[in-house]
Description:
Layout: H1 2-7, H2 9-13, E1 18-22, H3 24-28, E2 40-44, H4 52-63, E3 67-73, H5 77-83, E4 92-96, H6 102-112, E5 118-122, H7 127-136, E6 140-141, H8 144-147, H9 159-172, H10 177-185, H11 188-199, H12 212-231, H13 240-264, H14 271-280, H15 283-287, H16 291-298, H17 302-310, H18 313-326, H19 334-339, H20 344-360, H21 362-365
Parallel strand pairs: 1-2, 2-3, 3-4, 4-5, 5-6
Amino acid sequence: MNIFQNFGIKSLTNDRLAFINIDEDIVYKDILDVLPRDKVVLEIVESTKVTKTFIDRIAMYHKAGYMFALDDFVISPQYFSMFMPLFPFVEYIKVDMKENCIEKIGALQKVFRGKHMKMLAEKVETREDFQFTRDLGFDLFQGFFFEKPTIILKKNIEPAQALILNLLSLLCENADMNKIEAEFRVQPELSLKLLKLINACSYCLRNEISSIRHALTLIGMENMRKWLTIMLYAGTDEQPVKSSLLETAMLRAHTLELLSIKIYGKTYKGRADAFFIGMLSYVDVVLGISRKELMDTINVKQVIYDAVVNRSGELGKLLSLIEDTDDVHSEINSATLKQYGLTEDDISDIKFQGLEWLAEQQSVYNTL
Length: 368
């Protein structure tokens, strides 16, 4: 009810598939047909009792156009014996990285290679997990690696990314516009990419932008800083980790901005810093360097440095609060909420506003 009537499926998924857990109790209640069959994948949880009646129901729903996944797939004779009758009706198999050893996962991928089912690696928690399953040929990936990025020390920063970091540093220093424009001229491809991105944004522009100076004049330094930070996530190699982190970082950035406004009011002067801090909180994993090294490269003001590197200062504490509510294994600190005069519902409302905004930005970051 909340998802489809109160929130709206588009705001939560950006028109992608929503994976929803089900078991035999839900299936027997004959209520699944109220769900949009082209928008959801029904995950059959591992505790489901697979009987002849259950198989027949799944076959009926599958024939009607519903898609199914097997959740927390465990490679064992008992699991295969229980769930094999459902294989013809299953589009996705979610393989648990923590409950299966590497050898079994590799063997399983070979068994299902070429079949109609897509393989989804879940509980992907490290870069090694991600690279291993990607090399095996898994189609989809899920886990804390994307929400809780690890840091690799150290890899070379690509020239285009180095230029963006240099531009961000100049913007943070309020450098002369001539100097900023000159930096763009060093990398024509980056200039064209940025102009295309800004032209796709309708938040404050009525006419297409014809030059970097025109763009800087119209949208201002703060918005330019936002979009340059976003572009750090936009690689040319189409790595899934980058596109996933881009969306996560944009959501984090706008949510932190909304939270700062909620607490300190609409006239809060640090709202632009809040957005910037949220964006930077994920860049370290994209660039493969530590947060401290990243922030030393950009040479930002102290309030931003403290928030990103140490999670300290007023915005750093808000960033920590949002991170706590992102982690399903962490309890929200009630004392922190009380300190800011917030409730859990306030946090949920702010996050939903962020999701709605992210859905509106879909066309923007698809141009990157």
